[in-house]
Design goal:
By secondary structure, this protein is α/β, with parallel strands linked by helices. The chain has one domain: TIM Barrel. It contains 18 helices and 15 strands. It has helices at 17-20, 33-39, 64-67, 92-102, 113-116, 126-141, 157-160, 170-185, 198-203, 222-244, 246-249, 269-292, 297-309, 322-328, 359-364, 375-392, 414-433, 480-489; strands at residues 2-5, 10-14, 106-110, 145-151, 191-196, 252-258, 262-264, 335-338, 343-347, 366-369, 402-406, 438-444, 463-465, 474-476, 491-494. Strands 2-3-4-5-6-8-11-12 form an eight-stranded parallel barrel, surrounded by four helices. A three-stranded mixed beta sheet has the order 7-9-10. Strand 11, helix 17 (414-433) and strand 12 (438-444) form a beta-alpha-beta unit. The termini are close together.
């Protein structure tokens, strides 16, 4: 047995507003696209509570013939939704007490846009602001560092009704929201995340994975518009903070990407190319603009290839112009990423393509295959090494740093949970010893919560939540002690030597 130490790492846990807060229509909060998609019925919440409002997206951005496919998108198991969730809106004291007991140094949570600006307007809601002020104050009183995500998928429904992230006008709405949040909470918040997993946000505009669930027929068109606008929204929010708040508040801003390493299924050249294209199409498209101000050329070339083969004349993913390039390049103070697993892929063949194949699937040119048990740990190491090399070329003052914003596995089994995290922690330690600056790590998640299309079945939490109890009772799981010991001592016992 040996002991490894993480003296300079901030340890903590993560959540998001829709997944834990509940109180979906209290104190002035209006519907987001998550409320609409997962609730889906008329409420007393005013115009924002209409049924299936996400189907009313402006025709200028999503043709009517495509929007209707959202009707066939799956709903969560058991028709679950986040109306009550963990009821954290009413349990600030209990949640902060549990975080303190766990020994965290940092707590990552998100702010609900529609609590701050009901209906996506520019008229602030004092009750919503007070909720987050109280939460931040209590975290700081317990010496827990708040890390705040500005957007974790809960777009005001009214903004989706005019095209959402596929409409570039949303960027100005986002900046109005950011300015208020930076100005209101920035003296107490030193770590900001503008957008959580922009790839997943964009996917909702070209499939059924997440709201607004526009369907596969929008694939390769509306999702590319959304992806581009999301990156520009992040960059403009970063420059806003840099210009108006950074000197006084001394905070740091980034976006948070969902990242996975990609292994070729076979060692042939086609699968190796498919793995590289997959990596660049899912991760590279979000980090290269921060480094060079440009989308990866391999991605643009693949889209052009699809256009030629399908006789399309329109550019579907437009490269950034010189002004946008300057805006994007270096728009980060640290690099935030989420990691859960890695993929194995093989090359997409002509025989794999049918009339129903989503356009972006053809662009990306891969098919996912079954992974190996060793892929999670090995993939984490390869991903961190690769990202470190990518950011070396643009690092400010010769250095850059990473924060692992989410990492977890959905199980209540002690051995499975500990083995999963132990493998990641050991590789993280090796990376730090190899001079890769990983300064923070958050477990997903603090407690069991609503997990999108899977409802409440996945159990990621360190605390269990009884969703059949109206009090939403929290209970420590068997592996609570494992995390508490690591968080408090910043030491970990391992088998053998590193």
């Amino acid at each position: 047995m040996a002991t490894i130490e993480f003296p300079d790492v901030l340890f903590g846990t993560s959540t998001s507003a829709y997944q834990i807060e509940g109180a979906y229509n209290e104190d002035g909060k209006t519907f987001s696209i998550l409320d609409t998609a997962y609730h889906g019925k008329q409420t007393s919440n005013g115009a924002a509570g209409r049924s299936n409002g996400y189907l009313k997206t402006a025709a200028a951005y999503v043709p009517k013939t495509k929007v209707n496919q959202a009707n066939s998108c799956p709903v969560p198991k058991n028709n679950d939704n986040g109306d009550i969730a963990c009821d954290s809106y009413h349990k600030i004291e209990e949640d902060v007490s549990n975080l303190k007991d766990l020994g965290v140094q940092v707590y990552r949570f998100s702010i609900s846009w529609t609590r701050i600006f009901p209906g996506g307007s520019d008229k602030a809601n004092p009750l919503g602001i007070n909720y987050y002020k109280k939460l931040i104050e209590q975290l700081k009183a317990e010496k827990i560092t708040p890390m705040v995500t500005l957007y974790h998928w809960d777009l005001p429904q009214e903004l989706q009704d005019i095209g959402g992230w596929a409409n570039e006008e949303i960027i100005e709405n986002f900046l109005v929201y950011c300015r208020l949040v930076f100005g209101t909470f920035g003296d107490d918040v030193k770590y900001w995340i503008t957008l959580n997993e922009p790839r997943m946000v964009a996917n909702g505009y070209g499939g059924c994975s997440l709201p607004p669930k526009l369907g596969d027929q929008c694939s390769g068109i509306e999702d590319y518009k959304a992806m581009r606008n999301l990156l520009l929204a992040h960059a403009k929010a970063y420059r806003l903070y840099e210009k108006e708040f950074k000197e006084k508040q001394q905070g740091e801003v980034t976006l948070c990407i969902d990242a996975a390493w990609v292994f070729p299924f076979e060692k042939n050249s086609d699968d190796k190319y498919a793995a590289e294209l997959c990596l660049q199409s899912t991760v590279g498209v979000f980090i290269q603009p921060l480094i060079t101000g440009q989308f990866p050329q391999i991605v643009l070339d693949s889209i052009e290839k699809t256009n030629r083969e399908t006789n399309r004349k329109t550019k579907r993913l437009i490269q950034f112009n010189e002004d946008e390039k300057k805006l994007l390049t270096g728009s980060y103070d640290y690099i935030g990423f989420n990691y859960y697993f890695s993929w194995r892929v093989s090359a997409l063949s002509e025989n794999d393509i049918t009339p129903e194949t989503p356009l972006k699937t053809i662009d990306q040119g891969y098919i996912t295959k079954k992974t190996l048990p060793t892929d999670i740990v090995e993939g984490f190491t390869k991903l961190v090494d690769w990202m470190n090399e990518q950011f070396k070329v643009s690092s400010k003052s010769g250095s850059h740093k990473f924060f692992i914003c989410e990492n977890g596995t959905p199980t209540n089994n002690y051995e499975d949970k500990v083995n999963y995290h132990q493998g990641i922690f050991e590789e993280m330690y090796k990376a730090i010893k190899n001079n890769i600056n990983i300064f923070g790590y958050c477990v997903w998640s603090f407690m069991d919560s609503f997990e999108w299309g899977s409802g409440y079945e996945p159990k990621y939490g360190i605390y269990e939540v009884d969703f059949n109890d109206e009090k939403r009772t929290r209970t420590k799981k068997p592996f609570f002690g494992y995390f508490k010991k690591l968080f408090q001592t910043k030491k970990l016992t391992i088998k053998g030597k590193i």
